[in-house]
Structures are given as structure tokens and as C-alpha cells.
Amino acid sequence: GQNIDQPTEMTATEGAIVQINCTYQTSGFNGLFWYQQHAGEAPTFLSYNVLDGLEEKGRFSSFLSRSKGYSYLLLKELQMKDSASYLCAVFDSNYQLIWGAGTKLIIKP
Amino acid sequence: IAGITQAPTSQILAAGRRMTLRCTQDMRHNAMYWYRQDLGLGLRLIHYSNTAGTTGKGEVPDGYSVSRANTDDFPLTLASAVPSQTSVYFCASSPGQGTDTQYFGPGTRLTVL
Questions:
Q1: Contact A95 B97 (CB under 8 A)
Q2: Cβ separation of A42 and B90 shorter than 8 Å?
Q3: What is d(CA A51, CA A28) in angstroms, rounded to the nearest whole number?
Q4: Residues facing B78 on adjacent strands
């Protein structure tokens, strides 16, 4: 079966750095997305990786290793507004997007 | 209208009733999707449409139907609602199929009693 694993919940301190991991086992791979979802709101696009390596976008970076079936989202200089769920999703060989259950990130002052 | 809109925002429905969730986008995106989101589970695809006039089944299509008469609208119908269809429903769209980024509407919170 297809599976995407993320930690259920993480806690970090304002101003710090946090890394959210995602491992996947899918039938084929055609790219990986990270989305942010605040409570009661819609998911919003953060990043897309299709090749190995690090993609940096301001305070957020996303890393992909296709050989290891592994990605992480790195958030720097954490702000209270970063409290949200972070969703990892993978396009499989049929170009269907398979979603992880999300990681709830709690930021403490 | 800017982006994707969904209606209603929330709804409480008696089991056995018919319900249509509405979704409209103004971005001229070809592809549209319906997902449900349940606590502890990832988003699950119900139905999708790669272009106006075509639809396809996703991971959890049973009990749901869709139509795509034009580019902008993609309604989701529950013919006879059951309590297990209590969920948050998100409509999304993307410029094309394949690996295009999907953009989400604000969601409809549906409770079936």
C-alpha cells in the first residue's frame, strides 16, 4: 500500500528552528509537496520538490532524498503565526496526490 | 470572486437527505478535485475532473457523485447522506493535471446526524 509518515505533533520555541520530517512509500514518485494549514482553514502551498536537494524560500526550506523516500521541511526564526499543521503529499506514478496526516506544530513564546 | 469559493460554509444534515456542496473557481483552471479531511487522516480524494465534461473516481468515491458542466463549477452531491460522511470537505483546482500545484477552497464542514 501507499504510505506517508509524519510526526503527529511537534513543539518549538519562538525564534528557534524546527525540522519536520516526512517519509513515504508510494507506487512511483512524481514530486513532493508541503502545505501549511492553519486550524479551520484551507491548506496553502509552501513548496514543491521533484529533484534531490534543498529548496530555500525565505524562512522555509524543503529537502528531498528520493533514494531514501525522505523529505523534511525546515522552518527558521519561528514566529507565533507558524503554529499550524504541515502536510506532506506525494504524486504517485498515476499522478494522484497521496497525503500524509499532517504534523501539528505548536510554537511557545 | 477571487480564487475558489465553496458553499455552504457549514451544514447539519439529517441522515438520508440529499445534499449538494458547491464549488466555483475563477482562475480558469482545467483540473478540479474534491477531498474530505478527517481527524488523524490525510486528505482523501473523492472525485476529480481533469477538464470540463470529464470526471474520475478517487480513493473514496462511494456515496458521492460529481458533474463538470463547465470550467468554473464542480458540485459534489451526496445522494443519501450517512453519519460516516461527517467531515470537512475541500474543493481544489490546478491549472492542469499532472504535477501542477493544487489550490484549495475554504472548505465545508458537514455534520450528518
A1: yes
A2: yes
A3: 14
A4: B19, B64
Distance CA B87, CA B99 (A): 26
Place of cell 526550506: A61
On the question of pLDDT at B88 being above 60, the answer is yes
Q: Is B84 helix (H, G, I), strand (E, B) or coil?
A: helix
Provide the sign of the torsion angle of the four alpha carbons B66, B69, B70, B71, taken in this order: positive
Inter-CA distances, A13 with A57, A80, A106, B99, Å: 21, 9, 8, 34
Residue of B nearest to A4 (CA): B42
Cβ-based contacts of A101 with chain B (< 8 Å): 40-42
Take residue A51 and report the three cell numbers written for it: 529533484
CB A22 within 8 A of CB A102: no
Instruction: Say what the pLDDT of residue B64 is.
Output: 98
**Rounded mean pLDDT for each run of 10 residues along chain A, 109 residues in total:** 92 98 94 96 96 95 97 98 97 90 97
Q: Which three cell numbers stand for residue A53?
A: 536537494
C-alpha cell at A93: 506514478
Mean pLDDT of chain B: 95
Is B36 in contact with B46 (CB distance < 8 Å)? yes
- For B83, the 3-state DSSP assignment is helix
Cell of B89: 470537505
Cell 449538494 belongs to B20
